[in-house]
Amino acid sequence: MPNTQKTRLAPCPFCGSEAEGPPEDTLGPGATYWLECMNVTCSALIEGDTRAEVIKAWNTRTPEDKYCNCQPTVSTGLNCGACGKLLR
User: What's the distance, Cα to Cα, between the start and end of the chain in Å?
Assistant: First the structure.
């Protein structure tokens, strides 16, 4: 997804890098839209049902959103098994 005026994306709230996602015309009905930080050491990712939802969520996140608050009993390495966010 090019970072144009039409689809202006805020910098990554965790590291300040640019975000990218799939081009608008490549995802069909029922697809999961996503944006991810282009900094490989950050790897912030957000997914949603619509492109507009994902852009809004990306542009309004804060660094605190990076961490899990659900106190999981299952984890996948550094990430919560329930929500996928980083464990504290």
Answer: 31
Q: How far apart are CA 37 and CA 16, in angstroms?
A: 9
Structure-token pair, residue 24:
């608008």
Residues 42, 19 contacting (CB under 8 angstroms): no
At a CB cut-off of 8 Å and minimum separation 6, what does 39 contact? 12, 15, 17
- Give bridge partners of residue 35 from the DSSP assignment: 46
- CA gap 56, 86 in Å, rounded: 21
Would you say the pTM of this structure is higher than 0.70?
Answer: no
Q: What is the pLDDT of residues 18-60, one digit of tens each?
A: 998 887 666 677 778 889 999 888 878 888 888 888 888 888 8
Given a contact cutoff of 8 angstroms between Cβ atoms, the answer to whether 19 and 35 are in contact is yes
Distance between CA 9 and CA 55 in Å, rounded? Answer: 7
